[in-house]
Amino acid sequence: MKATVWTGKNSVEVRDVPDPKILDPQDAIIDITSTAICGSDLHLLQGFVPTMQKGDILGHEFMGRVVEVGPEVTTLKVGDRVVVPFPIACGACWSCQHGFFAGCENTNPNSWMAEKLFGNTTAGVFGYSHLTGGYPGGQAEYARVPFADVNPIKVPDELSDEQVLFLSDILPTGYMGAEMCDIEPGDVVAVWGAGPVGQFAMLSAKLLGAERVIGIDRFDYRLAMARDKVGAETIDYEQQDVLEALREMTGGRGPDKVIDAVGMEAHSPRPDYAYDRAKQMLKLETDRPFALREAIMAVRNGGIVSVIGVYGGFIDKFPMGAVMNRGLQIRAGQCHVQRYMQPLLERIQAGEFDPSFVITHRMPLTEAPRGYELFHQKLDGCEKVVLSA
Ligand SMILES: [Zn+2]
Ligand SMILES: [Zn+2]
Fold this sequence. Notes:
Layout lengths: L1 E7 L2 E6 L11 E10 L1 H7 L16 E8 L11 E4 L2 E2 L5 H4 L13 H8 L5 E2 L16 E4 L7 E2 L6 H4 L5 H10 L8 E5 L3 H12 L4 E6 L2 H11 L2 E4 L5 H8 L7 E4 L10 H11 L8 H9 L5 E4 L12 H6 L3 E4 L4 H13 L11 E4 L3 H10 L7 E4 L1
Parallel strand pairs: 10-11, 10-13, 11-12, 13-14, 14-15, 16-17
Antiparallel strand pairs: 1-2, 3-4, 3-8, 3-17, 4-5, 5-9, 6-7
The structure holds zinc ion (2 copies).
One zinc ion binds next to helix 2.
């Protein structure tokens, strides 16, 4: 089959690789119809996430038809159309039983690596380095999906791939970011990052009752999307001082809730950007937490800081004094996608919203390297690339 593989720093290729096989009686093989390139794939692309190996198949946002099931699979059959969540959950461990699917204790065969870096293991993830199990990803023609009764969700034929594909990651991730904010009527929610996850966090904040949503980014096309498609107000951080602008927009108090949808590769026009970038290059700091620091400084006293942007390791100059003295709460997490897929599918089916508005580029799987380039360099107004396999 054809698959998108990581071939070194800033290099991906579509190569012929062996077809996946059933390895466990609870596996299913999916014939992939649509798959997407995610912002977190860019962290892998650039080598910011350790433990990538040349030849690893990328991709953790995919859907398709079941073509084969293992003998112990009971809920899926050949021909079912499914979307696959990015964290691989076993469904049986303490974490899965408590809904913390991204913290599944059984699906990461390299749990020792995660334990060393994070203190405890995280779930296995498709196409997301050996730290999360080294599972082949879904930017390919086929994928093996473990625990097939627990993970994929069946989707009805009347919805298009583009309407349901993002249930695999970015829609639930954005939604969880807003849900962690415990939004109350009248709340102002500010979101750093108007990429696809940021757009869905803003959309979800509105669905959950925020009165005003403010998106912060530096790309015009992203800010325009936030205004036109989500009804957000926007701040261009290259044009305005974010803290000042937010104070002005909120009567001097700051937003009630803030969401970091940027993560480890934040940009900033301010001097600490050079500091963080240099430290990251020298591997003295794994992540550039600029958006997170700014979000903490911006939120009102007693506010909530929700972190859904990806961080890999350790950060510097963390404003713990602001967190403690102003009574802030920090909530974070890789998304427990399995919790949100069914309820969000039902909202899409009911016509409450259509997540396909973030898609700007569509191309065949064979053009994945071009998709990576457009998305990475933010060329041609690239917000989200969907590949058809
Ligand atoms: Zn993703
Ligand atoms: Zn589990």
